[in-house]
Structure formats: C-alpha cells, structure tokens
Amino acid sequence: NAGVTQTPKFQVLKTGQSMTLQCAQDMNHEYMSWYRQDPGMGLRLIHYSVGAGITDQGEVPNGYNVSRSTTEDFPLRLLSAAPSQTSVYFCASSYGTGWETQYFGPGTRLLVL
Amino acid sequence: AQSVTQPDIHITVSEGASLELRCNYSYGATPYLFWYVQSPGQGLQLLLKYFSGDTLVQGIKGFEAEFKRSQSSFNLRKPSVHWSDAAEYFCAVGAGTASKLTFGTGTRLQVTL
User: Using CA atoms, how far apart are residues A45 and A57, in angstroms rounded to an integer?
Assistant: First the structure.
C-alpha cells in the first residue's frame, strides 16, 4: 500500500492563478480531509468528505473547492490563489467517519507570491 | 466549541531523560483525545488516542498519556527520550464526527546528545 499520496510536493503560484492539489489513498477509506498548517496555528480543517459524492466545509473553507468523484481521490482546488493561502497542505484519510485513526499524506508546500 | 492548548512551544531535553508534554483541552463532555507526531518534512502520525476506559493510554514508540478529567489535561510522557524522538507533537481533541477534530498549536521537541 502506498497509503496517502499528495502531489505536488512543492508549488509556487502567482496571485490570481489557479491550481489543484492532488490527494489519493489506496486503503479504501471512506473519510478524507484537507488541512492547512501554518506556523503557530496547528492544523486547521479546510474541507472533508465522508464518501464519494459527499463533501462539507471545515473550519477554513473560503478560497478552496473540493469534489469527491471516487473513493480514492480527493483534490483540493484553489480557484484564485492569494498570498494568505501560502501554507503547507495535508490530506488525510480514515476508514470511517468516527474516530478511527487518520492517516496523513506527506504534505504539499505552497507559496503564493 | 472545543479547544486545545499546548502551553510549551519548544522543549529541549537530553537523550535518556524523561519527557512530559502538556495538553489542556476545553470541551463540555468527555472528549476524544489524540497525540500526533510530525517528523521534519513529514505528515502526522498517530501516537495514541483516548476514547474511554482506562485513563492511562499506551501508544507507539514507548509513549503514554494520562487523561485527567479534573484538570482537563492529556499530557504525553516518555520515560527515556531517544534522539529520534525529536519532532513536533500535536495534541488534538475531537467531538461529534471526525470533522470536528481540533489541533493544538504543537510543541517542538529538541533532543540533545
């Protein structure tokens, strides 16, 4: 099992550009989520999904879109990047929507100029 | 809403010394409590979790944590630290569904030889 994979590892964007952060898992997990990690602020939940076709907002959803067309993939879209979106982004998955262990990807470091 | 406080931003200990990382939470009912570890450049890995039952929880890598309801605390301990334990440690509290996982701001552990 590859676990949770994220691409790219690092990306530089200019303000106003769009991009998609990819996340995939091969553990047949129903629950997937996106977090951002900023210095001194821990991890904050952006969006999450409890299964294919179902998504919902987390704590900091503004500026981000998600979709879940398959169990395996959960991409995060930035439609018009802003410097405030400079961060490290982590994708996570777990077997269920309860409190099973969440497995994290290695992260994507995003810099918006 | 729940919240988590990790009062120590940075801790330095000598290899072989004991370790205690503090975590205080705020939640009206019995919470779900977690400790995650993040090695440099990596995603987060679950060390241990508490849902109910025995208040002393054993985790991986020789870590343990004790839930103290009266003090709203869930401190992480290790009797003898190894240089490989140098990392950032996050306490998290959950309520309701997994979408309500709230992370603390983290404690960075440095281990001196």
Answer: 8
